[in-house]
Amino acid sequence: MPLKLNSFSINLGIAIFLFTLVAGQCFWLFHVQHLFLVGALTDALCSYILLYGIFLFIRYSPTFYIPKYLKIGVIDLQGMILTIAWVFFCKYLLLNIFNQLPQYVYIWDQTLVIRGFVGWILICSFIAIHFFVTEFEKYSAVSEQKQATEQLRKEAELFKLRQQLQPHFLFNSLNSINALIGKHPQDARRMVQQLSDYLRNNMRKEDHERVSIHDELSDLQLYLGIELVRFGHRLNIKEHFDVPDQERLMPPFLIQPLVENAIKFGLYGTIGTVTIEIEAFEKNNTLTFKICNPFDATNVTPKGTGFGLSSIRRRLYLLYARNDLLHIEQFKKPFEASGIFCVRIDIPLNNTNSPNP
User: Fold this and answer.
1) 286-296/338-348 β-pairing
2) Segment 75-105, tens digit of pLDDT
3) Which one-letter DSSP state was computed for residue 69?
4) How far is residue 229's CA from residue 190's CA, in Å, rounded to a whole number?
5) Secondary element (H or E) of residue 198
6) Which strand (E) or helix (H) includes residue 8?
7) Are strands 274-283 and 211-212 parallel, antiparallel or unpaired?
8) Which of helix, strand or coil describes residue 247?
9) CA–CA distance, 45 with 23 (Å, rounded to integer)
């Protein structure tokens, strides 16, 4: 995140610095130039209050020109002009305050060169600092705008990926409900209720960047209940969840697409019972999900293979800027066409205990 410069802190710092110079000049005039104390203090205060006014003019004047590229000659010239103006106003003001006191006029004549040199150094230094501060503020504003734009783009892409995973599941569920209405109306009603609960929970999670592991697992159970009604005895689910603290947070909508893929490709081309294994465990501040389904290499792969996995991989990259969080493993049985296809995702956990709005 870009560093922000606080204008009040900058102005306060300048004021403290100038009051330090006031004390130094007062001491110099009183002890070295032997000017009376009230005169030394008045001289120092008036001089540096006017100098502070020049600093404010440089910082806030919309007409004050700052060169695009730092050029020492331009800064020196600007500093020289402002120094002459500062010395002139200081001398005019102070000589009028002390009514042309001979001792004071003599001190001014003796110290004119050193006053001008010190003023020129201070004004040139402030112009250079003002240039760098202005450029830094411009850079910070541009950087902040780029970060905001990138964040909006990432959120839009994440939302699009989430939305792409929902429609085909909804269409399949509605087709299954339609098929059950005639032969098994009780199952159709139960499936409608489960689908309603599932969609209601998903809509509630749309506004959250993180949800608790408990909520994600609860929604997974609702989804599995719908799929068990759809496929009946053909689908068998084995679950093993070893997550002690289910109030930890994780991104929503990561697990259901993986389980949906496993069911889709595990059941495709088979007529018998298919077992889907779902495992979840937490280790080293990382939540790991592993979903395994059987596959038959002799069957034609269903159309659309890979979208769910590629979208999850993309979402994990957008969320964590890592490409090593999704792993695919295949275990083929010796002398057989069948095997086991497993997908594992590792989700880094944070220590927050409440969902982000």
Assistant:
1) antiparallel
2) 677 888 888 988 898 888 888 888 878 888 8
3) S
4) 8
5) helix 185-205
6) helix 7-31
7) unpaired
8) coil
9) 9
The Cα 110–Cα 43 span in angstroms is 14
pTM (predicted TM-score):
0.55
Q: What is the pLDDT of residues 318-333, one digit of tens each?
A: 888 888 899 998 887 6
How far is residue 232's CA from residue 245's CA, in Å, rounded to a whole number? Answer: 32
Contact 166, 252 (CB under 8 A): no
Q: How far apart are the first and last CA of the chain?
A: 21
Nearest to 45 by CA among 17, 26, 70, 69: 26
Segment 342-354 shows an average pLDDT of 75
Closest CA to 72 of 122, 124, 123, 121: 124
Instruction: Read off the pLDDT of residues 168-213 as tens digits, 9 standing for 90 and up.
Output: 667 777 877 887 787 778 888 888 888 888 777 777 766 677 888 8
Task: Find where tokens 């010395």 sit.
Answer: 87
